[in-house]
Structure formats: C-alpha cells, structure tokens
Design a protein that fits this description.
- The chain has 213 residues and is an alpha/beta fold.
- It is built from 10 helices and 5 strands.
- The protein has helices spanning 15-26, 40-50, 66-75, 91-99, 112-123, 131-143, 154-164, 169-176, 180-194, 199-208, and strands at residues 6-11, 31-37, 54-57, 81-86, 104-107.
- A 5-stranded parallel beta sheet has the order 2-1-3-4-5, sandwiched between helices.
- It is globular and about 50 Å long.
- The model has no long low-confidence stretch (mean pLDDT 84).
Amino acid sequence: MADKPIRVLLVDDHQVVRRGLRTFLEVQDDIEVVGEASDGAEGVARAEELRPDVVLMDVKMPGTDGIEALKLLRELANPARVLIVTSFTEQRTVVPALRAGAFGYVYKDVDPDALAGAIRSVHAGHVLLQPEVAGALLAQDESQGTGRGSTLTEREREVLGLIADGRSNREIARALVLSEKTVKTHVSNILMKLDLADRTQAALWAVRHGLTR
C-alpha cells in the first residue's frame, strides 16, 4: 500500500501566490493541498482544524503575520512543520521566523521540483537553511553563551547528533534502543543545558560543534 500523501496547508495573503503554489503541488503524487488561508490568524485556525503535515507560510501578512502565527502554533503544540515561503531575503526577516519555530524557508520564485523537495525534506524532519542564515543564527547563539557542550552527558550528545540528522523522537528511540519518554527527557535536558529554545537551534548547535554523523 502506498504511503499517505503529505498534507499541506497554504497560508499567504495573495490569492495569486496561493493559486501558483497549488498548481505546482497538485501534480505531485505524494503531496496533497488540504486547505488555504489568507492571513496568519486564519492559518492557525485552519491548521488546528485540518491538522496538516506541513504548512507553507508567508512572513509578511496583514493582521497576524507569519511569525506571530508560528508562535501561536507552538503555544497550541500543533504538530505541523512550517516551511516559510517568502520574497524577502534579509536575515532580519528570515531569522526571526526560524527562531519562532519554522523548519526552513524557500523563496516564492522557487523551482517547482525544489519546492516539492523542500516539503518532503521538512516533512521528514530536516531543517532547511541557506548558509548565510545558518551563520547568522550560529553567531547569535555563540554570542548568547550557548557553548556549554561540556555539560552534556555522552547519551545527550548522541541524541543531539541524531536531532541534527533530522530524526524524530521515535526514530531516536529506535536507534538508541530507548523509550520515547526517555528521549523526550534527554531533549529537554539538552535544550536546558545549552540554553536553546527548540530543536532547530539544537540542530544548528550540533552542526557547528561537529556532532553530526
């Protein structure tokens, strides 16, 4: 039996953009557009209603923008992974979105095949960053004193390396022969010890400090 398609929600205040994204994605056998929203508040409501796997989210929207919507989704513990689709290339626009919990970003003029690939990658748990933005995030982390790797146990370092590989808690549990509850505890300890906000920052920290496999 074929795997279920990746369920995608489109959130953008421009109907033309949403129509273009839908056109790109409707030809993909493994991706299904399940809904649309025209601003961040509607996007959060639709994400709660539809429970998509991936949300394609614009940053600049009237009313509730993409960054606020990301924060709201986090507060609601919505499991959807957010991929920012933006026409803005400035780090001051993209970095806050990543800080708020986005798994990565692509530009609105992205090639259709690249867009589909980005959705599949984010759905698999990978973080998509351009080198210059990754560098900006890492520089901020270092300036905030996140170089506390010596406080991690050997097991926590193993878990951190697997987070950087894009593994889910279930996959980490399977790889290390642990329970998911134990893995969640390790992840919480890692974030606390390194003073990081989320798995995205943890993955970047691991890459910077050579903990990837």
